[in-house]
Structures are given as C-alpha cells and as structure tokens.
Amino acid sequence: MPESALYIVATPIGNLQDFTPRAIDMLNKVQVIAAEDTRHSARLMAHFNIKTPMVSVHEHNEAHRVERILQHLQQGESVALISDAGTPVISDPGFVLVRAVREAGFNVVPVPGCVAFVTALCASGLPSHRFSFEGFPPHKSSGRKQFYSERAGLPHTMAFYESPHRILASIDDMIEVFGADRQAAMARELTKTFETIHSAPLSELRDWMAADANQQRGEFVIMVEGAPVQEARELDDEALRVLDVLLAELSVKQASALAAQITGLKKKPLYQAALERKKD
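-> structure tokens emitted (280 positions)
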C-alpha cells in the first residue's frame, strides 16, 4: 500500500495507451480518488477495471472538499487527485487542495504523465529551449487583446489553450497584437484519431483553419513564437509622446498605426504601449 499522501496522478489526454502502469497501479491502491468529474472519469476507471471509490473535486467545490480529503489522510489513508485529462492542477482545479495538504504536513507525490501543451510544443517546430505556458485567454475580445498585449514583447515561445467556439476570434486578436507574420503552430485533438499539428505565420494559420470547419473542432493548443529582439526593446520618450498625442483623439489601433508611420518604429510594440497607456 502507498504511504498516506496525496498522489497527483496524470491521466491520458486521448490515447488510453498513454496511461502509465505506475498511474494505474496507484489508482488501484489508494483508498479514494478525487476526480474533477466523476462521471467522466468513471469511463476511464471502467476501461482499466479500477474500482476505487471516487469523490468530486472541481472548481466550484474544491475549498469545501479540502476538509474531507484531509480527514482521509489523517486516518492514514491515501488519496489520488486526477483531472478529466492530463496532469492535474495544470489549468485545472487542485492548487487549493495541494497547498492545504502540504500545509497540514502531509506529502504530495507526483505521478507524471501527459501534459497537452508539452506534447504540442515538442512537435511544433517552434523554439523550445525556453517557453511559457499562458493557459486560457479571457473570453471577450477586449480582454484577450489586453492579455496578448501584455505578452507581445516576450522573447520566448508562448503556449495558450483555447476552445473551439472561440478559436478563430482568438487568432484574429493574436494577429492584431502579435502581427500577421509572427510564426505560430496549432495542435488539436492530441493523441486522438484526428490529431493535427500545423505550423504557419498567424495570418496563414487563420486562413487555413477558416477554410476547413474540421480544423475548428476539438481541444486546442496554440503556440506563438517569441518577439524578435528588436521588437522587445523599450520605446523612447519621443515615440511615447507622439503616441499620447494621437491617443487623445484616436483609437488604440489607429493611434499605434499612425505612430508607426511617424516614428518609423514597429507597430506591435506601439500597439502594446497604447493599450497600456489607455488602460491607465
């Protein structure tokens, strides 16, 4: 039997053959499985003949479930935390529980496996010596543009998650903020039957997806290459003065475009600066 601890167990993101023997063994040995959605996970448990009792731990009840999980641990039992797919806590519930368990003095043991953005990144062809996981962007376009603008100058590859009903609108906002020529890659339905990984500049990627409704279905990882070094530099005082004058009369998009013409600087860093100054 495993020691009394909270085990963070990764599950497959699609292909069931990616479920590790250690993970299966652990889920059979613990006394309780804390699952994001017990109905969803029941199918996985049935496939591998895992009969361990499950309780739900999701974003709406996580704080409430902490005491129940701690009671199991205090009784000398072990608990496994799983999400609907992939590694728990990564863009999924679990952080509150993990922190509470550690603060209570119990061990938290990772049982590694699939992570969607890592799976996508390694096959994308984008630079991977340094990268950041940015999760899901905001639902509304205005929030997304602000979200992307805060990251437009980052020099490393960025990985985002996105849902099918927002994927094209989200890429449109990426094009406006990052620029049409910024290299990107889309990965969808990873490890599943219709797995697709396609790399292209953002504008070409958007057109390619728009032309085929099938490429707008599934679960998405969108990866965007970092900004060139010259685009990441700070704007000088004169460029910011020009931008402020234009922002007094024009929209962010219009002001940044005109400021680029006047100063000869790239539009993207000017657009990012305009968003920041408008917010202030």
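The first helix runs from residue 21 to 29.
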